[in-house]
Amino acid sequence: MIAMQYGFVLPGDYDMAVVRERIAIKGPLLDTLPGLVFKAYLHASAPEKTYAPFYLWHDEEAMHGFLNGPAFAGVARAFGWPSVKTWTPWHATVGDAIREARFATRTSAVIAPYAALAELRLQEEAYAQQALAHGALAVVIGFEPVTWTIARLVLWRDTAAGEAMPVALHDGAEIKRYDVGHLSAPGA
Question: Highest taxon of the source (predicted)?
């Protein structure tokens, strides 16, 4: 599996109704995309306006097929040429009710040099199990050894469940909260 995300920070006066309408129209087009486990159409209005879809692919060939195809070209024409982040999952649980996700938390942090990676992975697995016990519909924990980062995506049924779960990751962790406009999950 491979996790992927790109994002666009939109101007402060951008009408987010445009993003929500685009998600409503384009979202269902990937509901049957081969090789896609899921795509969460993430967007937020605060602290800044963003559109930042998150993908979980069965393999890199499926991801490349999307990035090389017309759907991604359409995104790039609409919003610009993004930097695409990828991670190999240390953990990926996708529950049967994933399509009910309406809220997401995404945390990322830099791994300290010479960190005990096996221990860190066990800590992240424990976090994933805790999130699932608190009602998470999906948990993906990604590891990226080029920039030594770790990322967590947790999908929730509602904001109350997501807000109740602590998201602390590491010193200097970046925490983002999103609404889920649509969830394509052909591989779930």
Answer: Bacteria
Cα end-to-end distance, the chain, whole Å: 13
Nearest to 131 by CA among 84, 169, 171: 169
Query: Which one-letter amino acid corresponds to residue 13?
Result: D
Of the candidates 140, 150, 184, the one whose C-alpha atom is nearest the C-alpha of residue 170 is 150
pTM (whole model) above 0.90: yes
pLDDT at position 47, please?
A: 86
Q: Return the bridge partners of 139, or none.
A: 93, 154
How many angstroms separate the CA atoms of 180 and 53, rounded? 9
For tokens 């991801």, the residue is: 63
The rounded distance, in Å, linking the Cα atoms of 73 and 65 is 12
